[in-house]
Amino acid sequence: MSVIDRARASHQKLTAIRRDIHAHPELAFAEHRTAALVADHLQALGIETHRGIGRTGVVGVIRRGKGLRAIGLRADMDALPIQERNDFAHRSRHAGCMHACGHDGHTTMLLGAAELLAASDDFDGTVYLIFQPAEEGEGGARAMIEDGLFERFPMEAVFGMHNWPGMALGRFAVHAGPVMASADRFDIDIVGHGGHAAMPHLGRDPVAAGAALVQAVQTIVARTLDPLDAAVVSVTQFHAGDAYNVIPERAQLSGTVRAFSTSVQDCVERRLGELTAGIAAAFGVHIELSYRRGYPPTINSVAEAALCAAVARRVAGEEAVDTAARASMGAEDFAYFLQKKPGCYVWIGNGPGEGGCTLHNPAYDFNDEAIPLGVSYWVELVREILGRAPR
């Protein structure tokens, strides 16, 4: 029986697992039920299982033969603080929390692969099954690394997969190089001199300074960066005042910066500092800038991307793999893994229509029809890298 046929044979069971996880979502570093479900499932398959890696992470270990090579396969487990709007039977049972990014599907696909790999002897080496907590903004990948992931489970490369709404079911996208952007944050505190709105000449208006700064920030991408260097600089918050006839004492601005390289991040951060200093001088106000680096860019290594594209073609068909898809300005903490190890993060189509709405949307649901394809991709990837049986 082929890998895809074996994956399809488990489809109903895996769908039930996925929907159970969806119905019981847990936020970052609180994935206690999910982690227990994962660990119990791995142990029931006879897989060596390690709990509590990076607080709530789980790592399964499958060894075959005498080979010294080892790779890691990663799935994320956490949900989002969103009130679900769906009304199907497996909707979230926890108010204000839902799987709106498909991590329930990612976890399930890796569990399905674990089952097939546990029953397989056609590879020589070690597979580490990495079930990661806290991808949604809390840096669970970094927590696992700091907890000794790569020292305790030495691997030559690490691989990830994420569903992609809007891409047809049955398709993959594989990027050689940047696939997701960095996610930096900034806060700007503007302190002026408050006063009567009818006598603005007696004050120093932080609102006017803030408005000028919002406009000036838009020139960073348009007039500072090389046009071929992609970046996004967005002011997403502007808070000031609480009365119609009062010029407030201060204003606060916040926003995000997205980029595909450290050099662009450095340029944007430097230019933000220059602009805030200039606006402060021009308006006679005091401005404090706090710039915080978040997730780094997710950069696939070229060799591993080529390998993953070949595996995806074997699973989905020659014409079903897009190696020219545009990268996303979204961010992903799998980037921390790729800073330490070669690897590749691929997208698997979630399809349009039911289950195909955008990520982080209250009507989102993972498309269960993608499960056998994802399971097959993981298994074939292991066979490709660690395989010893003839094909």
UniProtKB/TrEMBL annotation:
Molecular function terms, GO-annotated: metal ion binding; N-acetyldiaminopimelate deacetylase activity
Binding residues annotated for Mn(2+), in chain numbering: C101, H103, E136, H162, H360
CDD domains found in the cross-reference section: M20_Acy1-like
Record text on cofactor binding: The Mn(2+) ion enhances activity.
UniProt keyword Manganese, yes or no: yes
UniProt name for this protein: Amidohydrolase
Biological process per Gene Ontology, one example term: diaminopimelate biosynthetic process
Record organism: Pseudothauera lacus
UniProt keyword list: Hydrolase, Manganese, Metal-binding
Keyword Hydrolase attached: yes
Cofactor(s) this protein requires: Mn(2+)
Lineage: Bacteria, Pseudomonadati, Pseudomonadota, Betaproteobacteria, Rhodocyclales
Peptidase M20 dimerisation domain mapped to chain residues: 185-261
Database matches in Pfam families: M20_dimer, Peptidase_M20
Coiled coil ranges: none
